[in-house]
Structure to design on (154 residues):
């Protein structure tokens, strides 16, 4: 697989999950873009990867601050066994939850690792489902002070 560092066991097949209260065209378009990303960029995606929406990152879906997608395994219990159930060509299909992040949250994840952002989500009771509720960035230290906007999924 192109772009996979030596010694890294990258999944050959991935499916994306975005938990949302209502599927919207912009969510589907983002999933389509992200599904093509590894092919278009000659790279790979896996758990813990962050993918910004451009360079510099632009907000998704009319939000003022959600500009990066974090990929992690699904946390909804019934979805955690999907890769054991879906086998194509003898290979498990890995599922990745698309979690929108703000720039300060992405900076935290890149600087301190995946556990740091997961701990931040837990402390702030990050919702599984992208709904109509808005949120400010959870990471208000350093660069986070620049992002006081609140997002609302339409």
């Amino acid at each position: 697989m192109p772009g996979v560092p030596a010694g890294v066991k990258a999944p050959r097949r991935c499916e994306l999950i975005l938990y949302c209260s209502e599927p919207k065209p912009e969510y589907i378009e983002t999933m389509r873009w992200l599904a093509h990303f590894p092919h278009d960029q000659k790279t790979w995606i896996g758990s813990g990867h962050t993918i910004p929406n451009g360079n510099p990152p632009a907000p998704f879906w009319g939000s003022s601050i959600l500009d990066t997608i974090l990929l992690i395994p699904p946390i909804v219990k019934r979805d955690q066994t999907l890769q054991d159930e879906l086998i194509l060509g003898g290979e498990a299909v890995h599922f990745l939850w698309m979690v929108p992040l703000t720039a300060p949250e992405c900076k935290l994840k890149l600087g301190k690792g995946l556990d740091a952002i997961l701990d931040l989500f837990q402390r702030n009771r990050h919702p599984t489902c992208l709904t109509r509720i808005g949120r400010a960035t959870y990471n208000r230290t350093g660069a986070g002070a620049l992002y006081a906007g609140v997002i609302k999924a339409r």
Strands lie at 14-17, 50-52, 66-72, 87-88, 91-92, 94-102.
